[in-house]
UniProtKB/TrEMBL annotation:
InterPro entries: SOD-like_Cu/Zn_dom_sf
GO MF annotation terms: metal ion binding; superoxide dismutase activity
Organism, scientific name: Thermomonospora cellulosilytica
Name of this protein: Cu-Zn family superoxide dismutase
Gene3D superfamilies attached to this UniProt entry: Superoxide dismutase, copper/zinc binding domain
EC number(s) per entry: 1.15.1.1
Domain of life: Bacteria
Keywords: Oxidoreductase, Signal
Family from the record: Belongs to the Cu-Zn superoxide dismutase family.
């Protein structure tokens, strides 16, 4: 089970962006923050040294998600990986996390990248990948979700990013949205 910290206090949303070293132009107070550490499961032994910190934050007007992944093997430096919010918590099988979370009720013709939360990143020389995404909508907290790191960058047309390397469960509460 990943180590987690839930913060119900009002906090600066800038912290979510700072986690990924991409602070927004203005800080907006967050109403709800969840930090999750993992991964919960690793599916590719070549990435067993990777550790993740995912921060979900809600503020007036939308959702922020930040990811920092450390400990990549040397062969991953310079590579771009896809990462996405998925509909289910992680499980022992890669497919247990389900498909990509999509905002319900998106108007017809809304681009895939605007309906989902993508956190693609390039691994730096420090063997760290960082990403942050903001969406003008909220993620339902009816059940836990997850963030999955994939083996390839996200295809902008199909949303596919190849095999699942590891998965971090985001333990949302059963209340709220």
């Amino acid at each position: 089970m990943p180590r987690l910290k839930r913060t119900a206090l009002v906090a600066a949303l800038a912290g979510a962006a700072a986690l990924a070293t991409a602070a927004p132009a203005t800080a907006v107070p967050a109403l709800w923050i969840v930090d999750a550490y993992g991964p919960t499961y690793t599916y590719d032994a070549a990435y067993r040294t990777v550790r993740t910190h995912v921060r979900f934050a809600e503020a007036p007007g939308g959702t922020w998600v930040a990811l920092i992944a450390t400990g990549f093997p040397a062969h991953a430096v310079g590579r771009r990986f896809g990462a996405h919010v998925h509909v289910n918590p992680c499980g022992p099988r890669p497919e247990d996390a389900g498909g990509h979370y999509q905002v319900p009720g998106a108007p017809p013709g809304t681009p895939l990248a605007a309906r989902e939360i993508w956190l693609d990143f390039t691994v730096g020389r420090d063997r760290v990948g960082r990403a942050v995404a903001a969406r003008p909508w909220y993620v339902s907290r009816a059940t836990s979700r997850s963030v999955v790191i994939h083996e390839h960058r996200t295809n902008p047309v199909t949303g596919d990013a190849g095999g699942r390397l590891n998965c971090t469960t985001i333990p949302f509460t059963a209340t709220g949205r």
